[in-house]
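Teaching assistant's notes for section 4

Start the section by putting this record on the projector. Ask students to predict, before seeing the second block, whether Oxysterol-binding protein will look compact or extended. Collect guesses on the board.
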Amino acid sequence: SDHMENICGYLMKYTNLVTGWQYRFFVLNNDAGLLEYFVNEQSRQLKPRGTLQLAGAVISPSDEDSHTFTVNAASGEQYKLRATDAKERQHWVSRLQICTQHHTEAIGKNNPPLKSRSFSLASQGSANSPGLQRRPSQNAVSFFNVGHHRLSTGKRVPILQPDHLVDVREMMSQAEGQQRDLIRSIECLPVSGHLTSLDQDLLMLKATSMATMNCLNDCFHILQLQHASQQKGSLPAGTTISWLEPKISLSNHFKNGAAQNFPAEINKPASVREEQSVAEPCQLTREPEEINPDEELEDLCDDKEDDLGGVEEQRSVILHLLSQLKLGMDLTRVVLPTFILEKRSLLEMYADFMSHPDLFIAITNGTTPEERMIRFVEYYLTSFHEGRKGAIAKKPYNPIIGETFHCSWRMPKSEVATDAGSNFSAHSASEQVTLSKDLEGQAELDYYTVKFVAEQVSHHPPVSGFYAECVERKMCVNAHVWTKSKFLGMSIGVTMVGEGLLSLLEHEEEYTFSLPCAYARSILTVPWVELGGKVNINCAKTGYSASINFHTKPFYGGKLHRVTGEVKQNTTNTVVCRVQGEWNSVLEFTYSNGETKYVDLTKLSVTRKRVRPIEKQGPFESRRLWQHVTESLRDGDIDKATEHKRALEERQRNEERLRAETETPWCTKYFIKEGDGWVYHKPLWKAGSAVQTQQTDTN
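Reveal the predicted structure now:
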């Protein structure tokens, strides 16, 4: 109680992405257990702009930086705050935690734990029964008061022994049973009345209880690691303990089904849109279409994804969705709320990974296999920053089967890095003869053209194929990606299953590569993106390979968005280049000769892609297909965007059902299935082989 002092001062408060951070004057009222804030110190005598009850709250320093922290009230309301420095943050956090503990314990004394483990909700009584009525003075903390053990103060906590760990395991098993009972009891409540199963406090409890149990299991595993280390010696200095996969299955906690379209039910539209009226599959030609780059115009659309809309207004939708998901559930068939969508298709997102065509073209200009591999690694690591539109985790549209996206880039030849002896004019006469007609028509142009096409080749599983080529430089890349989304508690993980192949025809080299996993963190507050996992790049012909690690933020210690990697010659096992830094900030390349190169991704020039106007696009091209959804999102009309989105998805389901009934297979337009992968129907390497065969026959 010596530290129970009232403090006040200015902090920055995060409101939403529209207004962002704002200075507000905060007052900690220890006697009342309240955190209040005002517009400024002069308005302190007026009514507070906002008030949080600290009893039952959780005060959490953020891992984003050393200044930010959050106050999570038992009611579900949250303040995200930022101090001027780490010292001030620690001062506020410690005082808030002391006040919170004091008032939480006071509530525990005044409201003894209920005897029944099911919190009296399992009695199946009517909504008017005393056990189900909520008194006005009773908040979520006192209503769902869970008995807890308190350590006596002033005593040193002994090191846990193996039998103590068994006791902890037993207590956790009891807690899991209580949590299951709680979930069942909430779900048994009526959907209308004084206290319903859709009550916001109950939704918050359901959404966070599973994540809490998962976190407890992680902590228990850390205790086991620490105990093991005490048997063998202390942990090495600098050790970081990462978040772990759950050690105990929580898959049976929810019985509400695995793939129900809950947001769709909540936001059910009043009318059926025109898009949904298509009862038969579109009788569109599936013949490949040659896109003339001259018809494409520089893209002036600049949809910055910096607005999540009314997150607070949509909180009940998010909580209701989270309460229905199971840990590890595949989200492929789960319809997510419209307001979290980016204003672009996933196919266009893949195109945005090519926003540095100068680095892409420069790969083939390397004079040695070592230099070409290093250039490819440099291009690969710089592609993710622009592919993500801002730091906020938003989801691109799920492509409709048969959806396509076309674009191109024009890159002035003077801006592409070259090396002595590797310029294009030095090619032999026989090589010049093999150039395609497209190249002959552009012989006098002062720019290179990179063409891109993507197609959604499968719906279940969702697989996208994309292909890019630069005919002038005789290089192309082909890839197929299966996006597997899983629910991880308070995060969503997306695994990119598939492989890419870069072909440098001039050097007869092929580079295979994979893609990292992506994670959307903090999905209940301000979601953010991080990449994770190990990827490999290999060139069988030259014997060079690269291993790249995208590091997720550890549970203890570590930095955000960190990436490390190395390029080596497999034959001699010699490392020729090392790379470290952040994939969305600055990368440091250290070469075998001792030289160091820094690449600041935030300052790299971005070449705008060229896209045909919507009126010239086909019905299944991304921007035309999703134009009504995109326009509604730009206007901030979430309901209208949801209607258009649902109509497209319903049309896809109807067409898929009809194909199943008539046993009609789906025919792709640009990609052909080869083994487990998908290959562009007319890749540059096949065109080159055909020309060589023709020349051989002529000779």
